[in-house]
Amino acid sequence: MVPPHEHTSEIPEPRVLEEQGISRLSGVAQILANTVLPADRRPVTLETADGLQLVGELALPVGKAPVATVICLHPLPTHGGMMDSHVLKKMANRLPALADIAVLRFNTRGTTSDQGTSEGAFGYAEAERYDVAAALDLVEALDLPNIWLVGWSFGTDLALMHGADPGVVGAILLSPPLRFSRPEHLEVWARGGKQLVAVVPEFDDYLRPAEAKERFAVVPQAEVVAMAGAKHLWVGMADEVLDEVVRHVNPAAYPLPTEWAEG
Prior knowledge:
CATH topology: Rossmann fold
Shape: globular
Largest sheet: 9 strands, mixed
CATH architecture: 3-Layer(aba) Sandwich
Order of helices and strands: EHEEEEEHEEEHEHEHEHEHE
């Protein structure tokens, strides 16, 4: 059950705006790197089939139904990846307000963030099949629409290995290393025909655009998007990543605005 929640539906006073990374310019609020826009934010607990409880947060548009849903799968937890990894946190901070997208973030087993620590231990992308399934169970139980997986690095392996669920529209893979996933996982996506988008940094540490096009060629419907100037961690490139996510998940909201109207 989703617990009680609070939300803010009004733009705060100037001091609060500044603290939230929003600068006021003649009737509009400029969206900055640490901007937190209004959303209906609910702490959630995911229950896995193997008996674990995972820490998470669901962010919904305020006062309206979402048009689509994103399940975020974070980078490698043994190297600092978690639900608050910066690109994923920015999705939750902005996309409910700017694109009417519901955003579910959670810590996979054994992973810690400011929200807490999920039970269990790192499962080398295998045991995490239960974590992905628990996230899908939650959004499906809430009848949230048009479910997309958005994985980043390790999270892309989880999407490829465990995410080709009947209820999933497609997956967006940010900096896919193809480290744990294998050719047979790509073949499942190829046969299923679900949308698959690989967003690959020009200077990625593991897989760059030219090789990515070769590796993903086995999935006829796969789109490889080369991001000029980007690196694996997307430092300074979060806006471009969010735009790419919205371009596929809710094209009507693309491109995202850079200002937020007051009122």
